[in-house]
Design goal:
The chain has 444 residues and is mainly alpha-helical. It has two domains: 351 residues, Fumarase C, Chain A, domain 2 (Up-down Bundle); 73 residues. The chain is 64% helix and 4% strand. The strands form two sheets. It has a two-stranded antiparallel ribbon with strand order 1-2. Helix 4 packs across helix 5, helix 7 packs parallel to helix 18 and helix 14 packs antiparallel against helix 15.
Amino acid sequence: MTVGTADAVGDDAVLGALVAVEIALTRAWAVVGDAPAELAERVSTQLGWSGPGLLALGHGIDLAELATAAVDGGNPVIPLVGRLRSRVPESDRAWVHRGATSQDVLDSAVMLLARGVGHTIVQHLGEVDASLVALAVRHRDEVAVARTLGQHAVPTTVGLRAATWLVGVRRARRRLEHALAHLPAQLGGAAGTLSAFVEHARVAHGAEAEQVVERLVAAFANELDLAVPEHPWHTVRWPVTELGDALVQTIDSLGVIAGDVATLARTEIGELVESAPGGSSAMPHKRNPAASVLIRSAALRAPQLGATLHLAAALAVDERPDGAWHAEWPTVRELLRLALGAAGTASRLTAGLAVDLAAVARNLDQSAGLLVTERLAIVLGPIIGIDRARSIVAAATSVDDLERVLHAEPGLAGHDIAALLDPAAYLGLAGTLVDRATTLGEGS
């Protein structure tokens, strides 16, 4: 969907995250004073440490060979540990993966990967925000047809439609930011008891072992720039489901925009035009809403991926799930890929979205006074009776027919029928709602 999207969540990125987690653990042992500082720096350098919260580069691990070796153990961490240890001096090897289990490394790596990709998604949502504000302000008072259940309903404005999109995107952005800020590292040991960490610490610190392990967990999370976990979450999968839900909501909000643009860009409607429409291999005249189509495809897939994460969370049995945990890895990656691609595409779409004001006016004229039948029933009821008012507006088959009947109604003599039928006079709080949405500020 966006250049670089696949790379951001690809196998190389996952491997970089896994290696970064292993380095972070060694560095954490040095922070609590067990491993020599120079050893931690040596391991960091030899395994391609890029800095706190960053993927490790230059680790020298063969991705294809590791993937083949991962099949036997059911996850890539088991063969990875041996390969990492072989790349450091023998005297340093005991500090690689010290006390950890495979799930500690994989869960932390997924969180690390998600945090980095998530921040890029948030950046794109900020770009969408700015474009929608400009669109809403520019067309604040441009009267247009509102559609409900696919039919002309009442008057609205082009600006309010954009402001409504904006409200959805902002809500999703806030939720994603919250989820990213609370992504925790994982460190629980073989069965979530941290027993190996305590034992290692007890050898060096005696009775202070438990306090040392608490500091170790915090140091580990800090090295990864992740939240410090309150509790090992091997089978309590809220970090994954809350992240997934935030990503789905993000894609949902963009899907609404894409769906509206695709509809309003139809030939017979023509109110919106993408700045870079797609062509056709067979029909040279086509100007397809290609960006909207791509976003909609992501919006159609995302909810099922989110459901998979909840299903896996519900089946996270024992002290390590037998398959449910494994189902999360590709699912989270695909959700990240879809959200990143949809957000990047939406940024370009909204930045170049054009409004065809002539088409907006043409569609408005198709129904004109019929759009205000709701208003007529309210206003005319006290004058000619609610039943008569409703029968008039219900029987109208065209704007001209409605206007003719109203002029002929004895009880309405002297009333300004043209003003009653003016769609621009029945916009409610549309302008106020636009102002409220666009003046709250980006990220509010």
